[in-house]
Amino acid sequence: MDSTTQVLTTLIILTAVVVTLIGTQFARRRRDFYVLRALPAYDLAPRLVGEAVESGRRVQMATGNAALGGASTALALASAEMLYQIASRTAVAGDPPLAVVGESGALPLMMSAIRRAYTDANRLDRYAVTAARWAPAASLAMSAALVADIGDERASGGVYVGEFDATLALPLEAIARRRGVSVAGSARLDGMAVAYAMADEPLIGEELFAAGAYLGGAPSHKAALAAQDVLRWLVILGIIGSALVALRVPLSEGLARLSGGG
Amino acid sequence: MRRLLTLLSTALAIGVGLIILVEQMLGIPLFGLTQTMLQIAVITVAVTILMGVFNLIGVHGGRLLRRRRGWYYSLALLAAFFTVLILGIVGQRETNQMLLDTVQVSVEASLGALVFFALVFGAYRLMRRRVTLSGMIFTVVVIVVLVGALPLTTVAPVAAVRDWLMTVPVSAGARGLLIGIALATVVTGVRVLTGQERSIRE
Question: Distance from B47 to chain A by nearest Cα, in Å?
Fold first, then answer.
């Protein structure tokens, strides 16, 4: 890592730490500290769970190839938070969501998320260790497993948040054929495009990481979104600034030419 | 007890995260701790594969024993799993490879073809469900990209539009999305380092 990258990365991390810690304190004191814009996908999630509970069926949730211990660790944590939020709603009256992971590294995380939700709701008696299951990582095989589970377990809706490719189309189509509701988002661009076209409500880009703030409303999650916004603006200013610097020489030459100097 | 375990796991996550961050970012070697921790992580991931295998057997074994809906698929899965496992143990690698080439590849090829139909259905559903400006742009771009990819001289102007689309707006949009995901990843990492991430904590 060269020194410029080291300095920039350190600055980004320090900014994120400072904004997250200060933002958490502000959000604890003032509930309107950070007003969230409407995201239809997160508005739809309670309806999705409600329909599952009313019909006595289950919600399918999959994380794709996101797993702990690699580049997709943060994505796996975001998926686990989404699963916790879904499970804490189904825990009130229904069976746990059917969590399917493509990487075994995500399995303990998802088991823990469901167990935590059912423990918090004092409904541990309804928790089953097989609520989270592993479907081997090859994307086509996992999509086939998801489609089979939708039929066998009579899933009423699907939440697909993680790392998917174009094969995400298969479970989304299976859910649509059963007139179910789906929310989907992927960190991969091909999966993102499929989610946009086929899911009832898509999650695009960094929206994947916002489940805690939208469905849980915890101050630390809201502060994390505030930190993302601050960093985003810094990146935008950086891009505009560097573009202006790059344009400085041609611009000054052009202006000189216009004024008759060249 | 639960509180103590929570504190311990939080301290462990923060400690390991900070050590690796300092060593990677600042280039300060901390007694080679990073290598040791990465080795521990690799071993842990290997253990989770075993966990996954037991989970797979548990889920499908349970379905088979209780004769639940689709139990015959579970039977096929378990039979395939144990066949490949036994062939691997007795050293029949060629047979395993043959099974992979003939069965697995054929099945995946068929599934790959199904993805195409699912995508066509998705495009149809997109326009049927909500005719919005963004939906229309999406559909038009898909058509332009598909037509532009045809190897015909008559569609050369469309191919030029396709190339421009891929180089300028698609590339810019993709980079924007990836930057957004990268920033969210950094912030999630910071949540782990500051002990705010409860998936690690509990």
Answer: 9
